[in-house]
Every structure is written in C-alpha cells, then in structure tokens.
C-alpha cells in the first residue's frame, strides 16, 4: 500500500504479530491509519479535516478504494455518507458498523478513522478466511461528525436518520460566512440530496461502532477494550454578549458596557454549575470571539460556545436552563445585552441490556474482564440508536488524550478491539 513511514512505523514498532490471526491483519490496520494520517496533516502530527472539506472528501475517497478492493458495493448519499455493502447468504436485515473520518482542528489520528477501518477490517477478515455472513453487512462513513464546520455536529447520521430540518440548517454558517446550502453545493450535492439521504432504517437490525475511549479508565484498569453502557447527550449553544465599544483610556470604569467582563462572569459561573445538577454532568466554553478585538478598545461584542453534556436527560436540560439564566444574570449585572441560540440537542442513549451482555461475552473470549463504561462524548451511534438498536465498543486511549495530535492507541489494542468487534457482529447474525 506504500503507507507513510511515520505513523505506521510507530504503530508497528512493538506490535506482537501473533495477534494478527483469523484474517485480521495488524499491519494492514497500521498502514491504513497511517495513510489517513497524511490527509490534512498538521505540523504537530495531527490532522485537520473539517466536515464537508476537500480533506474529508479525500479521506472518504481513500477508504472507498479500500472498500471496493475488499469486494463491497459502494455508494454515497446526498449528505456525503459513504456506504459499502456486502450481501449476506440470506435476505435478512442489515448489520451496520463504522464511524467518521472528519476531525477537529489539529485533531488526532484515531478518533473516527479507527472505527471505519475496524468495520472494514471485519470484511477483510471474512474475505481472507472464506466466511460469508448470513446477513448483509455495511461499512459506513458518516459526514461531519465533529461539527467543526458549523458548530453543529453529527450531520451525516442526523441526515440518514431523517432528523435534520430546514429550520436548523438555514441557521448554519461556517467561519467564512458560507451557508450550509452553499457548502453542500460546493461539496457536490444539494439540499434536496441532503433530504434524500434519509433512510428507512427498518431494514437495518443493528449498528455497532468501535471507538477510542477518549478517557483513562481502560488504561488505569489495564484492559484493552470495554463495553459502552450509555452515551451522554450533548447540547451546544452559542451565546453573545453585546455592549458598547469605547476608548480604553477615556471611558471611566463606572461608565462602561464591557461585553468581555460580562462574558468572563458567565464563563466563571459555568465552571461550578454542573455539579449542582449531576455527578456526570459537564459544561465547557470552548470557543470565544471578541469584537473589535483591539488592545485599546473596550470590547463591544463577545460570542462564545457552550457544550453541555450528561447521561441523564432531565438533569442535563435543567443545567441548560440554569446556564441560560446565568447568561441573563451576567448581562444584567454588567449592563449589556445577551442573546443565546441552541445549535444542537441530542438525547442521551442507553444501550440495550442484551447487547451489553453479548458484547461482554465477546470481550471475555479474549481474556479480558468485561468493563462497562459511559461515554461523555457524543457519537453517531447515539443518533442511529434513536431509530434502531445500537452498540458501542471502546478501545484504550493512552492518558485519555483526544482531539489532540498526542492522541494514541497502541496497535495491540486496536487489533484486540477489532477481534472483539468481529466476534460480536458474528454473534448477532
């Protein structure tokens, strides 16, 4: 395949080749992770592949080539989702597996791509061992999972599930001011194509996603894989404070309408709110823009984002209400105006008990004590899981680092996770 030396060499350096068995190849997995790491590569060794960008499309096209070589029938829908299908020996409902290949700015090389490569590796293993699944199997790449482009993620899975609405998409603009419709057209599709991406998921029996943990629990417990019990549902908001610009030297402190002071008040308040509602709730201000952003100008406007998550929907929603009230209080206290807008709201997902137990059984076969985990991050699984049963498998993340070039999962853990994924999928057929 001619994979680049850097990531491939690091992955393969201490790999135990005895783990490559039953058709699963650690070397092929490392080559493919490395090949994708070169698309949108940053100086720090991470990747920048925003949703609906040329880089995301290139990564999809690269995987499509692998899919076709593995014997899959490949198609793309109007939302940019890629589906590679392997027919089963019988006409039954489909089992689907996959993830995404887009990234946050300067993100890591495992978040998303590993799940796509894992699902495809199951097909490769079947091909090498002559196994034909009883049911059809599909490998899927969802578009724009991270939400970097518009501040509202999980776009591809929302489109497939029929959850996108014109009211929502009409509000979306990227950092260059381009509308969602303009970006989709530049990508090579249309809004009608996005609506047509809605799929009748009644023909799909199960969706299963392998993903890096993005936490430290597996590493702390010395295990490679764990089963996800539930996924926290994110709410994303944009909040804007608007006051008055003024000269930093000539405007008295008691006669200011400083939007940045109000925003600072708000950000500080958010840091203590989640624990008042739930032990598992979190809230983060991750993006902040100041206007006019001059060293000697009192800030007229501040725009920021808030990411709110919990596995308990009622408690999360109560936290959202409290954050809105906190924004109003900060604005009133500092004599500025506050506006807010919700750009994403996804219900938490609890995995069906039978699927959790079946995944535990597969994990046990490979010598691990089954460990249950909760996902604080949102995933395409939680969107598709609103319509059909969904399951999720985590593999170990070193130091819990993610959304960062230092994100790392040992090849051993990747391969063991794919062995478990393959066994679980076969157990469902």
UniProtKB/TrEMBL annotation:
Record-linked SUPFAM superfamilies: Bacterial exopeptidase dimerisation domain, Zn-dependent exopeptidases
UniProt keyword annotations, A-Z: Hydrolase
Short name of one Pfam family: Peptidase_M20
One Gene Ontology term of the molecular function aspect: hydrolase activity
Annotated ranges, domain Peptidase M20 dimerisation: 232-331
Keyword set includes Hydrolase: yes
Segments passing through the bilayer: none
Family that this chain belongs to: Belongs to the peptidase M20 family.
Family annotation (PANTHER family): ALLANTOATE AMIDOHYDROLASE, ALLANTOATE DEIMINASE-RELATED
Protein name: Zn-dependent hydrolase
Organism: Sporosarcina jeotgali
């Amino acid at each position: 395949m001619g994979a680049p030396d850097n990531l491939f060499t690091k992955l393969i350096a201490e790999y135990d080749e005895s783990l490559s068995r039953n058709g699963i190849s650690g070397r092929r997995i490392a080559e493919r992770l490395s090949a994708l790491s070169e698309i949108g590569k940053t100086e720090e060794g991470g990747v920048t592949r925003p949703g609906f960008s040329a880089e995301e499309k290139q990564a999809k096209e690269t995987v499509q080539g692998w899919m076709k070589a593995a014997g899959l029938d490949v198609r793309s829908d109007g939302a940019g989702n890629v589906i590679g299908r392997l027919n089963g020996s019988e006409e039954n409902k489909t089992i689907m597996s996959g993830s995404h290949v887009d990234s946050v700015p300067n993100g890591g090389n495992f978040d998303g791509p590993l799940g796509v490569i894992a699902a495809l590796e199951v097909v490769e293993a079947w091909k090498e061992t002559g196994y034909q699944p009883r049911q059809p199997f599909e490998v899927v790449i969802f578009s724009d999972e991270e939400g970097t482009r518009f501040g509202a993620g999980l776009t591809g899975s929302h489109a497939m599930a029929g959850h996108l609405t014109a009211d929502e998409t009409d509000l979306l603009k990227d950092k260059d001011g381009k509308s969602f419709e303009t970006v989709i057209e530049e990508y090579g599709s249309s809004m009608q194509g996005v609506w047509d991406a809605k799929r009748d998921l009644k023909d799909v029996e199960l969706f299963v996603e392998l993903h890096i943990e993005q936490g430290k629990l597996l590493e702390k417990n010395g295990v490679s894989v764990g089963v996800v019990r539930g996924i926290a549902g994110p709410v994303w908001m944009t909040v804007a404070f608007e006051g008055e610009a003024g000269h930093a030297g000539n405007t008295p402190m008691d006669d200011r309408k400083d939007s940045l002071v109000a925003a600072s008040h708000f950000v500080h308040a958010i840091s203590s709110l989640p624990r008042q509602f739930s032990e598992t709730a979190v809230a983060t201000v991750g993006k902040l823009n100041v206007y006019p952003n001059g060293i000697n100008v009192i800030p007229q406007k501040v725009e920021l984002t808030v990411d709110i998550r919990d596995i308990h929907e009622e408690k999360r929603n109560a936290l959202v209400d409290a954050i809105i009230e906190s924004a109003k209080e900060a604005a009133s206290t500092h004599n500025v105006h506050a506006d807010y807008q919700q750009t994403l709201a996804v219900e938490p997902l609890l995995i069906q008990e039978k699927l959790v137990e079946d995944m535990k059984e597969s994990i046990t076969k490979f010598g691990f004590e089954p460990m249950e985990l909760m996902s604080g991050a949102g995933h395409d699984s939680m969107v598709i899981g609103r319509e059909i049963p969904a399951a999720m498998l985590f593999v170990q993340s070193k130091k819990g680092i993610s959304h960062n070039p230092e994100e790392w999962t040992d090849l051993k853990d990747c391969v063991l996770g794919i062995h478990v994924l393959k066994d679980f999928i076969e157990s469902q057929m």
